[in-house]
């Protein structure tokens, strides 16, 4: 299995993004924010695959962490 590259990451409280990071141009923040709106508030992990990207969410005590990796 090849190495995956981090494309985009953010931390949010509820639906408010507190910090984000990317070295690439693209609509990552738009996709991430749309997914964030649909996440349940319960503590859990979620993974979505779309357009050769893996989107990982971790929800914990009202905070969400989001990481996007290329495949």
From TrEMBL:
Keywords: Membrane. It comes from the Eukaryota. InterPro entries: Longin-like_dom_sf, Longin_dom, Synaptobrevin-like_transport. The keyword Membrane applies. It is a single-pass type IV membrane protein. It is found in: Endomembrane system. One of its GO terms (cellular component) is endomembrane system. The keyword Ribosomal protein does not apply. Residues 10-64 form the Longin domain. PANTHER family: LONGIN DOMAIN-CONTAINING PROTEIN, SNARE PROTEINS. Belongs to the synaptobrevin family. This is Longin domain-containing protein.
């Amino acid at each position: 299995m090849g190495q995956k590259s981090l494309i985009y990451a953010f931390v949010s409280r509820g639906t408010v993004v507190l910090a984000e990071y990317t070295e690439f141009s693209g609509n990552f923040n738009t996709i991430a924010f749309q997914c964030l709106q649909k996440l349940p508030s319960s503590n859990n992990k979620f993974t979505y695959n779309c357009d050769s990207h893996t989107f990982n969410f971790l929800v914990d005590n009202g905070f969400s962490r989001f990481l996007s990796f290329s495949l």
